[in-house]
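User: Fold this, then the next.

Assistant: Folding the first:
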Amino acid sequence: MNNTPNRNNNPRKNTPTATIPRKPARASGEKMPAQASRNMPAEKPEKITRYKSPVDRMFLALVLILICFGSVMVFSASYAYSMSQDPGNGYIYIQRQITFVLIGLAGMFVVSRLEPEVIKKFTPAAYWATIGLLGLVFVIGTVGGGAKRWIMVGPVSVQPSEIAKATLVMMLALHFEKHSDTILNTKDKKEHLMYGLFRPLFYTCLVCVLVVLEKHLSGTIIIFCIGIMLIWMGGVKATALIYPGLIGATVLGLVAWFVPYTRRRLDIWFDPTKDITGSGWQTVQGLRAIGSGGLFGLGPTNSRQKHMYVSQPQNDFIYSILCEELGFIGAISVIVLFILLIVRGYQIAMKTTDVYSSLVVMGIVSKVGLQAAFNIGVVTNTLPNTGISLPFFSYGGSSTVVLLIEMGIVLSISRFSRQDK
């Protein structure tokens, strides 16, 4: 009886899901005679077989920790504001947020059970449907905060620009996978730039134009940065990105300087006390909340600035309330959690066997890190106040649901990232 252990006895790993041909290795400098190559039978390529496995538990744990932490902070930050909206009821926003989280977690679970090939198949349709939704905003969109960015679907408001961040990552990843050989062939500069730079920029700028017309400058900046990051990750030389980067920065700078509402925000950024009872109020009160926290904070739910000083503290400035209640230790803990999520995401991306999956994972976790960095920069007045939400923490329906579905995509890819050679 053969007692040799067989690793394929594991019932979760005994069904191959995909095979990827690999070219046979050849020693450096070794050449095969032309006559011999014609007469010899063709060598069979080595194959890599991928098996289903459980989702990446560490990544899932980090997502659950962040979303639970964020929900607790939404409750703490929104309680006083909720009472001002409906005296006697401090649970308006946390009840809604829990609903959004449950919908998002359900979406995350469903998407995590899909195979990456299924997600890839629907990527073009998802991207162009998002373009349609962005255009539909100008026709049937609703106004909020002086800008038209939402579409009402019954009682629910949908913000297409949040969906666009995800579908742009997926579309660019698909493009780079289809044209990877052409893009990596730098000898043909025309084709290299056409498929590696200009077409991806078209997909990116198409979204940016529609979003900036919604007076959503912060969303435009994030989407443009996502596009530039994916183009660089896709194999385009960094030097080729200098001119598009400069042009994009110049255009955004001109918009920020000459458009009245963005110019006003720049003025407040330079000196928040210039209009301390008006446009500078939010920034000044947020900084006071951060400074009041000290090392260990005032304690959970003990924020003073959330009592009608920081406007709508459950939204973009929730990090300032977190700093006030949990102090420097709590603030750093949140940053560490984001770093761990990004690092783990990159580790998942490095284990994938196809360009699409790798770029999708890196694009999604990079977007989360970029948005978190921008939000913290805004709250600390390191960056102008542009209305950027903090992933997992800020109150919001579209942002929370879309974010958790993105996490489901990463978890789906993590199930197929292990290889059996």
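Now the next one, as you asked:
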Amino acid sequence: MNSLQETRRKNALTAIFAVIALIYVFPVILVVINSFKASAYVTSETFRLPTEESFMGWANFTKGMTFGNYPFAKSVFYSFFITIVSSALILICTSMAAWYVARVGSFFSSVVYYLCVFSMVVPFQMVMFTLTKTADVLHLNTPWTIPVVYLGFGAGLAVFMFVGFVKSLPLEIEEAAAIDGCGPVRTFFSVVLPMLKPTLISVGVLEIMWVWNDYLLPYLVLDRTKYMTIPIHIQYLQGSYGQKDMGAIMALILLSIIPVIIFYLCCQKAALSGYSLGTVSRVLNNQPHVSEKAREQIMAIVKEQGFELNTNARNLKQTHSNNILVIVRGTHNELFAALVERLQTVATGGEYQLVVDYIGACAR
């Protein structure tokens, strides 16, 4: 009975979240549908699928790239440049600042941290007019200098996320690097930065999506007669007599969405680093569909530590002891947390000891 109730509850939650997902995806579906319609049908038949009469094929995409008084290729270049440089600047500067704040722990570092947190709650509308004046005075009103402005606005959230992650990293690794002769700069780039990969990906996705889709900041800071990003270009997409082609606008909106989706999917795949429980299980049971490199690395640890296969084939129990081995790649990541959380109950109840071994550059 409990199993039946649990199944019903899961099915109900699946249905609810499917409806919520559909609500969020529906605007994107409308953009896709209307990007293939003639301009007159976009406003009159917005929710209808393209018909033989309204279907335009790829003509809207071609027209969108050539329509208007400003080259679309320049807008694409400025958007890519501003997004890449701004995001890289935010990731490098804020990760270094977060490492300093988390490790030093002085009064000054605490003030810096809380100022960054406070900046997250300040509305952009409160500072946008003074920002425009400041950007003009400091000559930050070009695509080559506006990343500095984005650094100021993106630092708050990035520092907040990086500080929380750095505090969870073992200090012993940095101490070992110092003993080996690494200075602060080399320790950060060679030891700390690789361990920040999960947070780097998370912050990078957030910042890139924000900068790429941002309309208001470039609109206020940049000279629109010389520089346009894609959102501004779409807003001012018009012909010689002020005529707007809604089909072409929808086509360009769709084109502007695609790079962000591709980037997000790539980062999502990269974030899933480490060997899963299924990989370890297949290696220990001598099953296929595992790379030879992964098989060799896992079995080398098993042989070195003297562990034997446990009954569930998801962890290893050492011979003549209560030690349980957990195999992960890197140090602290999602897989590490999931493995330790799953085994923590067993370890506590059976008075076992968790033994963690790492595969990769950050070996113990």
